[in-house]
Amino acid sequence: MNSPRFDVTAIGNAIVDVLARADDSLLVQHKLAKGAMSLIDTETAERLYAVMGPGTEKSGGSAGNTAAVIAALGGRVAYIGKVADDQLGQVFSHDIRAIGVTYDTTPLKGGLPTARSLIFVTPDAQRTMQTYLGATTQLGPEDVNMDYITSSKVVYLEGYLWDQPRAKKAMRDAAVNAHDAGVKVSLTLSDAFCVARFRDEFLELAEKHVDILFANESEILSLYQVDNFDDALQQVRKHCEIAALTRSEKGSVIVNGNEVHIIDAEKGVKVVDTTGAGDAYAGGFLYGYTQGYDLVTCGRLGGLMAAEVISHLGPRPETDLKKLASAVLA
Length: 330
Description:
The protein is of the alpha/beta class. Helices cover 41% and strands 22% of the residues. The strands form two sheets. A nine-stranded mixed sheet has the order 6-5-1-9-10-11-12-13-14, with helices on both faces. Helix 9 packs across helix 10 and helix 12 runs antiparallel to helix 13.
């Protein structure tokens, strides 16, 4: 058997983030659910963009951020996600290729514009995301390069995509083809509200198709409809080969059958913006996993990547990740 071409192929919503600082009063005034991701229409996107303070445009999208971290660490990674043939689409395409990710999904010509997420960052570093999906809603099975899927070590699926029926089919097809080819399937639950919308489907996915599950504490509690983290932990260990569960300042917990590894959070990190923390964690973890490191090292590397991303504005790394990771991987 040929060695895999990619360590990871990621499928997600290709989004350009527009980040701006905001006070809680602005969130209250516009009835925005603090700390959550809410989907908005064109009219709302224009209205909220008009009330935002000075913004910074950065390429984002959950799986895109994860792919960027893997590439920055030196991993071989491909990304599948739909942009429009417009200015923001060109920004996204340039940024993800520049960091070393293979990206060649055909852009949408005419019709909906490239997706953007308006991110309001409050003084406590919480991010409230108002996301206009635009061109990402047109991602379908025809956009998924199955050669990439079957020639990877791991396929990484973004839970946010589940909102779109055609994208959902594309992800199911990718998962089935991956397993047929002996490729591991990983899923990030993305958001507790997303879990609430598709709980039954996510449970079925976790049980039948997912080898590696990524979730934060609120997402895993929502998935199993429990109030206690330990109860959720007992449930997930029956469903997935590996679950990597992040708990903010408490670090993370990795479950693999009867093994439970508790990973401390990085010390002394000044939190500026939590956008992309879970994405960066998954990137660090999957890089470690595909390079054959043990689960504790994978978790430590994930935590280190998350710490880097939350120390500045924006969802993608700004320091030399190979250098940063060298102490953990030594």
